């Protein structure tokens, strides 16, 4: 009885959790923008260091926060009844928006590297990040062809659904790992002079490290929400689910 009472206390409704998670995601976007504006010189499209600053902002916004929102669409109780097609379109649209921002973020860093003669794709961060984006593009394309186009039979959708869900969580955690490693790499490259070495933990390092922890927390909470049985959309074999 005590165990059941404890479980009931922990079984919080999804809407307040979603509000908290949304606030956390907006905080991550605000902090990465503040970091790039206050400590890294702001934003520009001239190919210099300020062009690079678009990279962390767009990656955190698209590849983590917006992608996390797309992943949680089917955890909203309002999606559990009525036509499913509008929610499919919302899920796919948010994921597509996430992908567009991610591609723009990649374009910013490649332009910065090419303008300054910096080699591309030599670090673990770059390998992990590009691999995540490629996996993301395959996930979106196959999901679009399987769940939104009318040709796919019901058995194929049922077969692919758990694979789609698994890779959805995997891509999110890879995205978090890529962003956190990118923040760390940027700090190592930038904080090298005698008054602001990274190992001395200046204010910028504290700020950016905190940002990395919050991004990690956001990703863990999204994956936890996806795994929570009481928040999963009831599976149905109705005609609506085979639109």
From TrEMBL:
Compartmental location: Late endosome membrane; Lysosome membrane
Listed Pfam families: Cytochrom_B561 (PF03188)
InterPro entries hit by this protein: CYB561/CYBRD1-like (IPR043205), Cyt_b561/ferric_Rdtase_TM (IPR006593)
Domain of life where this protein originates: Eukaryota
Keywords, sorted A to Z: Electron transport, Endosome, Glycoprotein, Heme, Iron, Lysosome, Membrane, Metal-binding, Oxidoreductase, Translocase, Transmembrane, Transmembrane helix, Transport
GO MF term set: metal ion binding; transmembrane ascorbate ferrireductase activity
Residue ranges occupied by any Cytochrome b561 domain in the UniProt entry: 20-227
Reactions catalysed: Fe(3+)(out) + L-ascorbate(in) = monodehydro-L-ascorbate radical(in) + Fe(2+)(out) + H(+)
Cofactor annotation: heme b
Transmembrane segments: 12-35, 55-77, 89-110, 130-151, 163-183, 203-227
Major subcellular location class: membrane
EC number: 7.2.1.3
GO cellular component, one term: late endosome membrane
Membrane topology, record value: Multi-pass membrane protein
Subunit structure: Homodimer.
Stated role: Transmembrane reductase that uses ascorbate as an electron donor in the cytoplasm and transfers electrons across membranes to reduce iron cations Fe(3+) into Fe(2+) in the lumen of the late endosome and lysosome. Reduced iron can then be extruded from the late endosome and lysosome to the cytoplasm by divalent metal-specific transporters. It is therefore most probably involved in endosomal and lysosomal cellular iron homeostasis.
Protein name, UniProt field: Lysosomal membrane ascorbate-dependent ferrireductase CYB561A3
Organism: Manacus vitellinus (golden-collared manakin)
């Amino acid at each position: 009885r005590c165990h059941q009472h404890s479980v009931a206390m922990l079984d919080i409704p999804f809407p307040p959790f979603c509000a908290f998670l949304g606030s956390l995601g907006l905080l991550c976007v605000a902090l990465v923008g503040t970091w790039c504006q206050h400590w890294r010189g702001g934003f520009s499209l001239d190919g210099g260091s300020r062009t690079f600053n678009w990279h962390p902002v767009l990656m955190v916004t698209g590849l983590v926060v917006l992608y996390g929102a797309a992943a949680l669409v089917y955890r909203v109780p309002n999606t559990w009844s009525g036509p499913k097609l509008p929610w499919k379109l919302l899920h796919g649209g948010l994921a597509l928006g996430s992908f567009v921002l991610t591609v723009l973020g990649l374009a910013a860093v490649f332009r910065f590297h090419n303008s300054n003669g910096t080699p591309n794709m030599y670090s673990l961060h770059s390998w992990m990040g590009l691999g995540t984006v490629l996996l993301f593009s395959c996930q979106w394309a196959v999901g679009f062809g399987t769940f939104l186009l009318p040709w796919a039979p019901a058995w194929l959708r049922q077969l692919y659904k758990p694979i789609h869900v698994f890779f959805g969580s995997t891509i999110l955690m890879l995205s978090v790992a890529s962003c956190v490693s990118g923040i760390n790499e940027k700090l190592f490259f930038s904080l090298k002079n005698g008054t602001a070495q990274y190992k001395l933990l200046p204010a910028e390092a504290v700020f950016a490290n905190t940002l990395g922890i919050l991004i990690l927390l956001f990703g863990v909470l999204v994956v936890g929400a996806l795994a929570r049985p009481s928040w999963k959309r009831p599976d149905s074999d109705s005609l609506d689910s085979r639109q």
